[in-house]
Structure formats: structure tokens, C-alpha cells
From TrEMBL:
Phylogenetic lineage: Bacteria, Pseudomonadati, Pseudomonadota, Gammaproteobacteria, Candidatus Pseudothioglobaceae
GO function terms (MF aspect): ATP binding; hydrolase activity; nucleic acid binding; RNA helicase activity
Keyword Nucleotide-binding: yes
Organism: Candidatus Ruthia endofausta
UniProt domain Helicase C-terminal: residue ranges: 216-385
Name of the molecule in the record: ATP-dependent RNA helicase DbpA
One GO cellular component term noted in the UniProt record for this chain: cytosol
Protein family membership: Belongs to the DEAD box helicase family.
Motif window: Q motif: 4-32
Length: 461
């Protein structure tokens, strides 16, 4: 039997018949890899981007085990946005066409609460929704999840980016531990590994082939003669490659600050990360950098400890590392999740002994590369794609990620795709918005209300 065909699966005849009418014959890679484990009741982590076919994978899994005669919520799918939740609900409805009287409900913010209560009262089999609205229904007692046998976390990395960690945790607490948990994510950062460890039982991990490639880091070494030339080399590399996110390593706090000051002087969007920053300053610097509203972070090895930054385009060793292990750790921060990363190292004659030690460590002769042409210094410096807004309200004011998204995307606002990461702290919240729509975002939050209240908002700089 052809294992790429849906016919190779032990699916309910009605589901299989409907797949044929939909023209679904061969399985996409994520479906082929995950469906056997899903159908056998195992917890599964599926790494795949939007469009990989993951919705059909978990949709068929939860439909297969559904008890149609029981009008209790048996499956719940958590999604980061209203748009995605609605898409998922439509897709599952399409897969379930041959099953009579199946009830699927989308529960999202930005839509009236009353009709949702009415629908829930009539009995629902599958709920698809955003964490904020589902948590609200749980608080008000209008939604019960004690009969849920399948929990799906869809685009889990995006949900964590948007600050839904606490909401997800409180929702999971209301669901039986004897459940099947399916987690799908485009990337697999430490935060996802941590949540998987807490809420899943011996999960099977599968990756769609497009992101199963090993990470590729292109390394370049440049010999420089003077301190001025070292700074010019750094500017040339940043001007040529135009990275959205780059980490520059210096060996001392003093160098890190001086390099940052020079970069800012020449028009780069840079921040220094040193041990001298207090916790609030460090937190704000990290938020701005991970939000892609600052392009260059300059740090020492000590200050960079614990930084969990995804999608780092480039690492530049302004000073060569003290040993091969530190060098490997530095450059390993780029080229993650199948992306290509660039690592550039600057060194002088007096650092040749470090270079020799590095050659021994990596087992290859290091051949110096030629620096980019100085004409790059005349090119305009690329502005960061996002700008971070600081809102004077946070957890203490009961602000939630959904409130901020709803406030920004209302009438005359910004589209969801233009909103980046959201961080909600005790008394402040931070949201990244596309740089070209900053004025619109400021106006929306300044003039409209969040949770019925007005909040001050400004650009974080």
C-alpha cells in the first residue's frame, strides 16, 4: 500500500470518503509524518510553517475520535489570532462535512460575547479560539473543558510571542491530564521546548522537510590593522548585509559601549547590552531587539548569557573570542531552524595566537576574506521594520494581549499582520508595530480605549 495516500490510514469511512470528494489524495509531508502517531493517540510536536497542511493533520485526528452523540466540548484548538482561528474552524468543518450534526464553534475576541454563550448552551463538540476569549468564558463559567480529550496548540511560537503564556497555562489547568496534546509551531525555540516538557507526555516530534535541513552558518574572517579600521570594517559589514537582527560581540564592557556610540553616530539603530544595565533597562533593550525595532545589539559574552533570540541574521565578532568554545557558542546563535546565518570575525596581528587556537579547535585553516568595498558606506542605512510602543498599563490593570490586538485592529487601525511581539509586564505593556504604521497605531491607542479605559502610549526609545 502507498504510505503517502490517505487510504493507508485507519480512518473512519465517512472521513475518507469526504477526503476523496475534496480531492485530497496524497498526504503532505507533515501529514504523512504526524497522522499515524496522532491517530494512535500519542502526543505530537509538529514543526511546520503555515501552508504545510498541519490543520488537516490535527483536524482529522480530533474528528476520528469524536463521539457525535455527546454534545460536550471534546476538542479544543488554541490559535494566536481571530483570523487563524476562523480559518482553522472552516477547514475542520470542511473535513467534517460527511459527519452529520457536528458542532464546531469559533470563540475569539472582537466578536459579541452573548451569541457565543448561546451557542455553547446548545452543545458543542469542537471549540477553536484565541486564548484570551477562551479564558474569559472559563472565568464566567460559560465554557466547560472537563470532557476535553484532545488539546491542540496551533502556531504555538506565535502565541508565546504575543504574550499568551499565562492564558494558555490557566486554560490547560482546567483540562484533564489524561488528554492527547498536539503542538504545532513554525519554529522550536527554548520557550516551546519548555512548554512541551510541562504539558505533554512523551511527545513524538516530526518536522516538515522544508525546515528539516541542518542550519547553515557561513563564516568569514577579516584581518584589520588599526582600531579605526576595525570600526570601519564593522560598518561595512552591516551596510553590505543590512541584517534586520545582528549581534556584535566585544570582549569588554567599555568596547561594547564605545562601539554602540560610534554606530549610533553613523546612523545605525544600535543598543549596548552590558552588565551595568539594571533589570528594567535590560528588559526594555531585549524587548526592542527581539521586536526587530533595533537592528544591532552590541554585547559582551557575560551580558549575552541567557539571551534567547530567534531569527538572528548575523553575528559579528568585533573582538575574536578567547577560545574555540566561546567562538562556537557565539556564532551558534545565528543560522537556527534551517535558516542561513552569517558569522564574521575581525582580528589583528596581535590576536593571531587566538586565531591559531581557533584553527586547531575547528580543524581547518582560516583564510582571511576581503572586506566589502567602501562604497557601501554611502548607502542609506536600513530602518528597522518594526517600532516598539510602550503602553502605561499592564497585568495590574488587567490588560491582556487580546485587548491590545483588538485596540490596534479596530476601525481605521492596523491589520493584524502589521503587529509583532507583545510583552505585558506588571504596569507596562510593549507592542511592536510595522514602522510605517506607527502614527496610526499611536492614534488608535491614544484615542480609543482598551478595556474601557484610556492609556498613555509612546514610542520606546
Amino acid at each position: 500500500m502507498n504510505t503517502t495516500n490517505f487510504s493507508s490510514l485507519d480512518l473512519h469511512p465517512d472521513l475518507f470518503k469526504n477526503l476523496n470528494t475534496l480531492g485530497y489524495d496524497s498526504m503532505m509531508p507533515i501529514q504523512q509524518l504526524s497522522l499515524p502517531a496522532i491517530l494512535s493517540g500519542k502526543d505530537v510536536i509538529g514543526q511546520g510553517k503555515t501552508g504545510s497542511g498541519k490543520t488537516a493533520a490535527f483536524g482529522l485526528g480530533l474528528l476520528q475520535k469524536l463521539d457525535i452523540k455527546s454534545f460536550k466540548v471534546q476538542s479544543i484548538v488554541l490559535c494566536p489570532t481571530r483570523e487563524l482561528a476562523n480559518q482553522v474552524a472552516v477547514e475542520i468543518q470542511k473535513l467534517a462535512r460527511a459527519i452529520h450534526n457536528i458542532k464546531i464553534l469559533s470563540l475569539c475576541g472582537g466578536t459579541p460575547f452573548g451569541p457565543q454563550i448561546g451557542s455553547l448552551a446548545h452543545g458543542i463538540h469542537i471549540v477553536v479560539g484565541t486564548p484570551g476569549r477562551i479564558e474569559e468564558h472559563l472565568r464566567k463559567g460559560t465554557l466547560k473543558l472537563n470532557q476535553v480529550s484532545t488539546l491542540v496548540l496551533d502556531e504555538a511560537d506565535r502565541m508565546l510571542d504575543m504574550g499568551f503564556q499565562e492564558s494558555i497555562d490557566s486554560i490547560i489547568e482546567t483540562i484533564s491530564v489524561n488528554r492527547q496534546t498536539l503542538l504545532f509551531s513554525a519554529t522550536y525555540p527554548d520557550t516551546i521546548a519548555s512548554i512541551a516538557q510541562r504539558v505533554m507526555k512523551s511527545p513524538v516530534m516530526v518536522r516538515a522537510p522544508s525546515i528539516h535541513e541542518e542550519s547553515t552558518i557561513k563564516q568569514y574572517f577579516y584581518k584589520i590593522n588599526t582600531d579605526d579600521e576595525r570600526m570601519t570594517a564593522l560598518r561595512l559589514l552591516l551596510a553590505k548585509y543590512k541584517p534586520e537582527s545582528s549581534l556584535v560581540f566585544c570582549n569588554t564592557k567599555r568596547d561594547a559601549q564605545e562601539v554602540t556610540d560610534e554606530l549610533i553616530y553613523y546612523g545605525f539603530y544600535a543598543l549596548a547590552m552590558s552588565g551595568d544595565l539594571d533589570q528594567r533597562e535590560r528588559g526594555q533593550a531585549l524587548i526592542r531587539f527581539s521586536n526587530k525595532s533595533v537592528s544591532v545589539l552590541v554585547a559582551t559574552d557575560v551580558a549575552a548569557r541567557g539571551l534567547d533570540i530567534d531569527s538572528l541574521d548575523m553575528v559579528i565578532n568585533f573582538n575574536i573570542a578567547h577560545d574555540e568554545q566561546v567562538h562556537t557558542h557565539r556564532i551558534g546563535r545565528t543560522g537556527r531552524a534551517g535558516r542561513t546565518g552569517i558569522a564574521c570575525t575581525l582580528y589583528s596581528d596581535r590576536e593571531t595566537y587566538k586565531l591559531n587556537a581557533l584553527e586547531l579547535g575547528i580543524g581547518n585553516e582560516i583564510i582571511p576574506d576581503s572586506l566589502p568595498s567602501e562604497h557601501y558606506l554611502n548607502k542609506p542605512i536600513k530602518k528597522p521594520p518594526m517600532t516598539t510602543l510602550k503602553i502605561d498599563g499592564g497585568k495590574k490593570q488587567k490588560l491582556r494581549p487580546g485587548d491590545i490586538v483588538g485596540g490596534l485592529t479596530g476601525k481605521g487601525g492596523v491589520t493584524f499582520e502589521k503587529i509583532g511581539k507583545i510583552n505585558i509586564l506588571s504596569h507596562w505593556s510593549y507592542v511592536a508595530v510595522s514602522s510605517e504604521l506607527v502614527k496610526t497605531a499611536l492614534r488608535k491607542i491614544s484615542h480609543d480605549k482598551l478595556k474601557g479605559r484610556s492609556f498613555k502610549v509612546r514610542i520606546l526609545s
